[in-house]
Design brief:
Layout: E1 3-6, E2 11-13, E3 15-16, E4 23-30, H1 36-40, E5 48-52, E6 56-57, E7 62-63, E8 113-115, E9 118-119, E10 128-130, H2 132-138, E11 143-145, H3 149-159, E12 162-167, E13 193-195, E14 202-207, H4 212-220, E15 224-229, E16 241-244, H5 255-266, E17 271-274, H6 276-285, E18 289-305, E19 311-322, E20 331-337, E21 343-348, E22 353-356, H7 371-380
Parallel strand pairs: 4-5, 5-8, 6-9, 8-11, 14-15, 14-16, 16-17, 17-22
Antiparallel strand pairs: 1-2, 1-12, 3-11, 4-12, 7-10, 13-15, 18-19, 18-20, 20-21, 21-22
Helix pairs in contact: 5-6
Length: 381
């Protein structure tokens, strides 16, 4: 029978509703009630088997990817649009090939597998193109339903995240730990791409596995976005600020990105780190990061702005955190998680550097912290 097997030997049997293939990864849970389309396409989940705690999944199906057309100059695929064309004169004449889609957070499902309690095989929604099971099968990703996700989540909370594998066939596979490899390389683009080249200011986005809504959010602010690979030396380009994106895995494995961000700090370039990018900024500044027991993955994480009584409800997806006490002189805590007091943001007291652990671009989740992008752009203007 199809099963999820954890590294401690626990077995959770279920019913297959995706691709009939085996998969291995780190087993994590998300407590959000909606947003499975955005979650499954979030590159931060690369190499992970996702457990959704909300019991009913798939009831609104899966929409078509869609293409962002309302932003000036963006048309269909970026390779055919002057507003989303690679910087051909200075970047080896490589054409952009990725569309800027609007309903997903990347071009494909990123999770290694999906575990749920109850599956709605007959979805109903005006924007539904196909069922969740059909999408998983199309993307060659296994899914299990009929699993006791409450018991599974309790185990992960008590013992911490574990490695696991979904076994659909008679052939066994080894466990896989995405935190032991440079998994960011799997979700970062091979070549730089530019969006809205006539926009201002010009922002370099270091793509460590970016959610597309970070790009959409910057474009909505009128920016030109230069999206570069995680290890790309971009200092010869013309730009005014840098955003370091979210992404999967252990931030300490992103050594090329850490060195790039360290140079940004040394040259006093306005820099914003988001999620993994926040952790990378901390390491570049000389602080430390550590692995959380079971991480924060939901759309309802309360974060207090330090020094105020203001609380924001935030969208989060991360398994590592910054050690607040390790922040060097000049760096101050900006936000704190009200559930476990972990660091949720920092800023520099005199230089144009900001970092947030949560996702100001949301998608899914509350839009409370969209102002972070405005704060960042104020440092440039």
């Amino acid at each position: 029978m199809p099963s999820l097997i954890l590294e401690d030997g626990s077995v959770y049997e279920g019913i297959s509703f995706g691709a009939a293939v085996n998969a291995a990864g780190e087993v994590v849970f998300n407590t959000g009630m909606v947003g499975y389309v955005e979650a499954l396409t979030d590159p931060s989940y690369r190499g992970q088997i996702l457990v959704l705690t909300y019991p009913l999944v798939g009831n609104y199906g899966v929409p078509a990817p869609g293409v962002v057309k309302e932003l000036t100059g963006l048309g269909g695929k970026s390779g055919n649009s002057p507003a989303a064309r690679s910087i051909s004169s200075s970047l080896n004449n490589q054409p952009a090939s990725l569309p800027l889609i609007k309903n997903f957070e990347s071009e494909h499902i990123q999770v290694a597998g999906l575990i749920i309690a109850d599956y709605s095989s007959y979805p109903s929604h005006w924007d539904c193109r196909q069922s969740l099971g059909a999408w998983l099968e199309e993307e060659k990703v296994p899914g299990l339903y009929g699993v006791d996700t409450r018991a599974l989540t309790k185990k992960l909370r008590e013992k911490g995240t574990m490695l696991g594998k979904i076994i659909m066939t008679d052939e066994d596979i080894p466990f896989f730990d995405p935190n032991q490899v440079e998994i960011v390389a799997q979700v970062s683009p091979a070549e730089p791409i530019i969006y809205q080249p006539a926009g201002s200011p010009r922002i370099v986005l270091i793509d460590c596995g970016t959610k597309l809504n970070i790009i959409r959010s910057l474009l909505a602010q009128g920016c030109c976005v230069i999206r570069v690979p995680w290890d790309y030396d971009f200092f010869h380009l013309d730009f005014a600020g840098v955003v370091v994106s979210n992404g999967p895995g252990n931030p300490e494995n992103c050594r090329p990105t850490i060195e790039l961000v360290r140079r940004c700090l040394q040259e006093n370039i306005p820099t914003l780190g988001i999620c993994l990018g926040h952790q990378i900024m901390a390491l570049a500044a000389g602080a430390r990061t550590y692995k959380l027991k079971f991480g924060h993955r939901s759309q309802n994480q309360p974060c207090r702005e330090v020094g105020t009584k203001r609380c924001y409800i935030t969208s989060q997806n991360h398994g590592y955190a910054v050690e607040t006490a390790s922040l060097p002189t000049g760096w101050v805590e900006w936000f704190s998680n009200l559930n476990d007091r972990t660091n949720e943001g920092f800023r520099h007291s005199s230089s144009p550097f900001l970092g947030v652990q949560f996702h100001p671009e949301h998608s899914p989740g509350p839009v409370d912290t969209e102002f972070i992008f405005e704060r960042f752009l104020e440092l440039i203007k």
